[in-house]
Amino acid sequence: MARVEKAKREELTARQQKIYDDISRTRGGRLGGPFSVWIRTPDIAEHADRLTNCFRPASRLDKRLIELIVLVVARNASAKYAWSVHEPQGKEAGLTAETIDAIRARRRPDFKRDDERLIYDFVTELTATKTVSAETFERTKAAFGIDGVIEAVTCAGCYGMIGLVLNVFDIPPRPGYPLP
Amino acid sequence: MARIDDVKRENLNPRQQKLYDDLLRTRPRSHLTGPFAVWIHTPDIAEHADRLVSAFRVAPKLDRRLLELIILMMCREATAQYAWSVHEPLGLKEGLTQEVIDAIRARRRPDFKRDDERMIYDFVSELVATKTVSNEMFERAKKTFGLEGVIELVSCAGFYGMIGYVLNVFEIPPQPGVPLA
Predict the structure, then answer these.
(1) Which of A26, A34, A51, B87 has the greatest number of CB atoms lying within 10 Å of its CB?
(2) pLDDT digits 0-9 by tens, B64-111
(3) Main-chain dihedrals φ then ψ at residue A31, nearest 5 degrees
(4) How confident is the model at residue B167 (pLDDT cuts 50, 70, 90)?
């Protein structure tokens, strides 16, 4: 049971309704997940939405790697809603079922693709220590460029924030992709 | 030594230069420092991250004193030197006592004189440790700060967690002052 009531569009202010429409337009017509909470604080909703959209067109990192970052962070926080949305998206973007199963089980996947291994190691070190070593930084920068590293760090941080919101407000997962 | 070059305005493209000017307009420094010295390289991210900073600064529901408390706790958790060095004086200005700030710096629970600060501290401590809060903590915080206040509390904690990651990965040096051990 979520700790917050679902917002009814007709009960929102004009500004909130515009934000509601903008957000749900790019998310299959739904105001799900953290946005069902953030719609009550429209300043945060509007800009959190735009920030997460920076990771969507995948101009820097492949969508497959963005989804990998999101799944690692969601697992780390046990953020069930985010996992339930991003497991199918990760598969669609090219992550293997084995990789996803390993992350779900808190095991290091046996990666076939080097770029996934680098991103996984980067994000797990970041979430554990709140930074990365010089070697990890240099290796990741060599593979993805400075802009790729900036995107990886910011995406991990952004979904860390989303994980906290989902957990505190107890947002239930979408059906089909449970996270034990 | 930062893991990214200092930002020189003349090396930026027009979109970045406009962003650079906008960012400095609301910050009391002569050049671009902190997380935006990193984010200026990804201007789409910079723009929306800056708007989120404003969302917590311009018309917050929580007292700014309490937001600074949340921020300092997140900086301590991540040992984010730059953000601590900026927010310690801001915290004092907004009404946190030096004793409270020193306790957080030393990773001790402060001896709070103000109940709202104590509640914020307990909430954020639990949030950082467990990535969530219990029903009792949630209900107590909602009764004290309202639903929107709790949304702001959690979002601010998460947002400054993100800032801490950026500052640490790029080893952004602190502003002058006593560093965080």
Answers:
(1) A34
(2) 999 999 999 999 999 999 999 999 999 999 999 999 999 999 999 999
(3) -105, 75
(4) very high
Residues A133 and A96 both lie in one domain: yes
Alpha carbon of B154: minimum distance to chain A alpha carbons (Å): 6
- Burial (CB count within 10 angstroms: exposed 0-12, middle 13-18, buried 19+), residue B95: middle
Assess whether A47 and A87 both reside in one domain: no
Mean residue pLDDT across chain A:
96
Whether this model's ipTM surpasses 0.95 comes out as: yes
Give ranges for CATH 1.20.1290.10 in chain B: 64-169
Residues of chain B in contact with residue A51, where contact means CB-CB under 8 angstroms, are: 45, 48-49, 52
Query: Do the chains contact at A161 and B162, CB–CB below 8 Å?
Result: yes
User: What is the 3-state secondary structure of B63-109?
Assistant: CHHHHHHHHHHHHHHHCCHHHHHHHHHHHHHHCCCHHHHHHHHCCCC
| Shortest distance, CA A125 to any CA of chain B (angstroms) | 11
Domain that holds residue A163: 63-168
| Å between B117 CA and nearest CA of chain A | 19
Give the closest residue to A95 by CA, choosing from A123, A119, A79, A127. Answer: A119
Q: Is B1 exposed, middle or buried (0-12, 13-18, 19+ CB in 10 A)?
A: exposed
Does residue A77 share a domain with residue A34?
no
Question: What are the CA-CA distances from residue A46 to residues B65, B85, B172 (Å)?
Answer: 24, 29, 28
Contact state of B44 with A131 under an 8 Å Cβ cutoff: no
CATH class in words for B64-169: mainly alpha
- Count interface pairs A-B at CB distance under 8 A: 129
Q: Which residue among A78, A151, A157 places its CB closest to the CB of B161? A: A157
Nearest CA in chain A to B37: A150
